[in-house]
Design a protein that fits this description.
Layout: H1 4-26, H2 31-53
Helix pairs in contact: 1-2
């Protein structure tokens, strides 16, 4: 649980990098990666919020 927020941030960055790479190479956006990245950013923000609330 200690490294959960870092893992979530890493997964979000990986998803957003994949979207950038696909868009730059193939000129389209793969929306499941966008949604997954936004979901991981949301979970990251929630984990920070609850950690500070303690």
């Amino acid at each position: 649980m200690k490294y959960l927020k870092y893992l979530l941030l890493l997964l979000a960055l990986l998803c957003f990098f994949e979207v950038y790479y696909l868009h730059s190479q193939l000129s389209f956006i793969d929306y499941p990666f966008v949604y997954a990245g936004l979901f991981f950013v949301f979970l990251f923000a929630v984990s920070i919020y609850f950690r500070r609330k303690k």
